[in-house]
Amino acid sequence: MAAKKGKVEKEGGRLVVATHRQARHNYHIDDTFEAGIVLTGTEVKSLRRGLANLRDSYALIRDGEVWLYNLHISPYPFGNRFNHEPTRTRKLLLHKDEIRRLTGKLKESGVTLVPLRIYFNERGIAKVEMALARGKKKWDKREAIARRDEQRQIERALKDRQRS
């Protein structure tokens, strides 16, 4: 029986495991930064297979440490009794100055920490790209969709014009 694999992409020397595709649709992204993540052995093996989901995940600062909640990393198929719990809370690794800066920004109303993607850097270390984000209103989302459709129509018209 073959174990299923997820989708893993190469992007500029990085091995991108999972992306939160809805994040840029649901949030205004203010600032992005990179954080390390504390993982167990079977979690790393599952990530290398692309078995992760960022959909409902978010981060909070608790007791001067940053924690990632609801990140789903599927159990490693060959992990037997040493397997991990799929949605356990995971610690993010940041410098104290970064945590202090984030704490100040998170005290603002409506700001949250959202993971955008998980990847392995050039040295093979798992990293999470996090963002300080503000939730979009429904009309913001509709406006963004309309703008994207207009841009697509302009590009299509230019392409048709070049063919003629």
The CATH architecture name reads: Beta Barrel
Secondary-structure element order, as H and E?
Answer: EEHEHEEEEEHEEH
**CATH level 3 topology:** Small Protein B, Chain: A
Overall 3D shape: globular
Query: Taking all residues together, what is the mean pLDDT?
Result: 87
Which CATH class applies here?
Answer: Mainly Beta
Q: Helical stretch count?
A: 4
CATH H-level homologous superfamily name: Small protein B
Strand content: 35-45%
- What's the assembly state of these chains? single chain
- The end-to-end distance, rounded to whole angstroms, is 54 Å
Poorly predicted regions are none
Total domains:
1
Number of distinct beta strands: 10
- Rg, Cα atoms, Å: 19 Å
Structural class: alpha+beta
Strand order of the largest sheet: 1-2-9-10-3-8-6-5
For the report, how would you describe the main beta sheet?
Answer: 8 strands, antiparallel
Indicate the percent of residues in helices: 25-40%
Account of the 3D structure:
This protein is of the alpha+beta class. The chain has a single domain (9-136), classed as Small Protein B, Chain: A. It is built from four helices and ten strands; from the N terminus they run ββαβαβββββαββα. The chain has helices spanning 23-26, 41-48, 96-106, 138-163, and strands at 9-11, 14-19, 27-37, 52-53, 58-62, 65-69, 72-73, 90-93, 111-120, 126-135. An eight-stranded antiparallel β-sheet has the order 1-2-9-10-3-8-6-5. A hairpin with a 2-residue loop joins strand 5 and strand 6 (65-69). The longest helix is centred in the last third of the chain and has 26 residues, at 138-163. It is globular. The mean pLDDT is 87.
